[in-house]
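Exercise 7. Given the encoded structure of a 199-residue chain, write a plausible sequence.
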């Protein structure tokens, strides 16, 4: 194929007196295959920037809160109603994600902050009989913003350390804590973020 192209350019050069062939060859090289690697390089650079942005948004561990929630839901399907880092006991430092199944059963799923893998899960027994799981599902009925989206909505305010369905703020409101003490409320219907001035 290349040999035919060179022959055609040489023939055109002879017929047109040389100058046009150079212009044709230059035009072919500037609009043809030479651009493909440049376009691929730009695409790769954009992908690299996206990877850097994803890495920067994490909580300093390899698995941030959104990754922990995703892992927990893949392991125990349902609705994530809270996620936070355990600060004491044998599981200190791990993520605990509370998941409610459609029947109201509550599960605590433990996720490694280093690997993002589920370390264990167990059903939470409701000692006081107040059926928190069903109440959480009722509070989220008709909403569109889940726990991960609430975290993403607040991510620009600081590193998210905790997300929880807030019973005190009213139905369908997420409470999101950031490192350094900033606390934010995210409306689960609209995604609107406001600072939690009460805390």
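Solution.
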């Amino acid at each position: 194929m290349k040999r035919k192209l060179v022959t055609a350019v040489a023939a055109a050069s002879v017929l047109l007196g040389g100058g046009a062939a150079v212009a044709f060859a230059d035009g072919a090289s500037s609009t043809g295959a030479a651009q493909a690697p440049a376009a691929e390089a730009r695409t790769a650079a954009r992908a690299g920037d996206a990877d850097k942005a994803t890495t920067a948004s994490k909580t300093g561990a390899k698995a941030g809160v959104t990754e922990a929630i995703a892992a927990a839901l893949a392991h125990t399907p349902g609705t994530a109603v809270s996620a936070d880092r355990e600060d004491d006991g044998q599981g200190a430092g791990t993520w605990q994600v509370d998941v409610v199944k459609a029947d109201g059963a509550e599960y605590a799923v433990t996720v490694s902050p280093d690997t993002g893998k589920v370390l264990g899960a167990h059903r939470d027994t409701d000692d006081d009989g107040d059926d928190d799981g069903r109440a959480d599902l009722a509070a989220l009925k008709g909403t569109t913003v889940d726990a991960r989206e609430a975290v993403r909505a607040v991510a620009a305010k600081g590193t998210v350390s905790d997300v929880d369905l807030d019973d005190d703020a009213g139905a369908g409101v997420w409470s999101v804590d950031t490192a350094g003490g900033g606390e934010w409320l995210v409306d689960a219907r609209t995604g609107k973020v406001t600072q939690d001035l009460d805390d």
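Remark. Confidence is low (pLDDT under 50) at residues 1-61. Students should compare their own answers with the one above.
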